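User: Here's a chain of 549 residues. Predict its fold as tokens.
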Amino acid sequence: MSYASQIIGHSKKLRNIPQLLRHENTILVRWFPSDVHAYIGKRNDILKVCRYGYTSVERQKGFSTAVNNTASPLGSFKKTVSRGTMVMGNAMARPRSNITFLCSQAHLIRGFSSDSGLPPHQEIGMPSLSPTMTEGNIAKWLKKVGEKVSPGEVLCEVETDKATVEMECMEEGYLAKIIKGDGSKDIKVGEVIAITVEEEEDIPKFKDYSPSASDASTSTAEEPSTPPPKKKAVEEPIRSPEPKISQASPTHAGDRIFASPLARKMAEEHNVSLLSIKGTGPDGSIVKGDIEEYLASCGKEAPATMPRAKDATAAALDYVDIPHSQIRKITASRLLFSKQSIPHYYLTVDTCVDKLINLRAQLNALLEASKGKRISINDLVIKAAAMALRRVPQCNSSWTDDFIRQYKNVNVNVAVQTDNGLYVPVIRDADRKGLSTIAEEVKLLAQKAKENSLKPVDYEGGTFTVSNLGGPFGIKQFGAIINPPQSGILAVGSAEKRVIPGLGPDEFNFASFMSVTLSCDHRVIDGAIGAEWLKAFRGYIESPESMLL
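Assistant: Prediction complete.
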């Protein structure tokens, strides 16, 4: 047999593989792209699997080798590659030197190890279903153990950091065991969640199966470990606590004893004289650790983080602990990152919305006649923001360490509050769409957000965000936090009637004004640029007919 790669059919045809392997000592590495291919490599040419893809071919002398743990952004692989072993995914790799290949949506592992005592099976790992996902929850399984699964069928619903996404099966087989059941939380990307087999009669053999610790934590195993510093800290000799009494020279100058306020408080609570303690703090002052060490050496317990009186007060409180949802976790981390790393500044302007309200009434009358969906003030605001971004493209940008990226597409995210958390679905190319199209998309995406059924394509790729608390909640004015990596977000307040001066000295008129606040990233948007964008936005709001040109 030639050492050149040979194509093998689908896994159902692999029953004759022992005959093929008898001709040559081969290592078989099989990957499944959308159009199924497989390749045979010479036993001395073994692809070494490594983090986020494949690197140079490693020459091995033996008949078997171990494939290192691999944690790709969308899955993980780990199997022992021995004679007749298969490693499966949905990417394709050819055994050649100096190649680099990125995995995509890889979360299946198939082992044919002869020494495992188990029939051919697939270990399905937790996939990465969004760019920022590191762990997920199993909302519910739609397939039960023993049921047949086919490519494209939904196995389960996975709660990611942004939405609940359906996880589809990649290959035909039978669901033999569910490792992580309904409601399982904080499952790392790549961790095994289920087992599938090719033959129905193999299902009982996996009743008591559990993945090895190494398989269940591939993503953790690949991360660079830092045990030396921790070991060093542990190996340091521990001082045996000794009471520091009068033989230790007290820390005082004259009649004054230097101690921190917390150390003094702890000493008073435990009736301890500071004269009996030698300080180890700056300039020999007594600190909290000295008091705790003295109390431990005397057989007394150091107080908890709060005094007993406070403990009694806390115990009397009636409360309930609400677990963090995935969307709440990611929202918290991203907003914290934004406020800590992005230099915010805020620009506020009042816009007259009388003409905008009149135009909306006229358009809705036409839409009602044609049985179309009504247009809201927020839809007009989104359109005006998109048109202003097209006029002032510097605000349609994001910051990177090497350059400022200015987007040609105007994709506006719209903040939607739901019972599950805050979502920001995106209206793509909002500057090119009509008001009725924007209105329909906003209503559809808001409904999907409330049903927790948004897909990644529904919220990724935004370049600017609009958050409206005026219409639904009557908030007059507020400042919003920028949604990274964007550089701007518009906070929309409520409209209110105001008295304005007329032409004459004793004349006055009434008009409706709406306050809007633009939050800017000062690294990208200078103050004058932000003011120019607000001027353009105000022009579209106060002359809404110009948006229709």
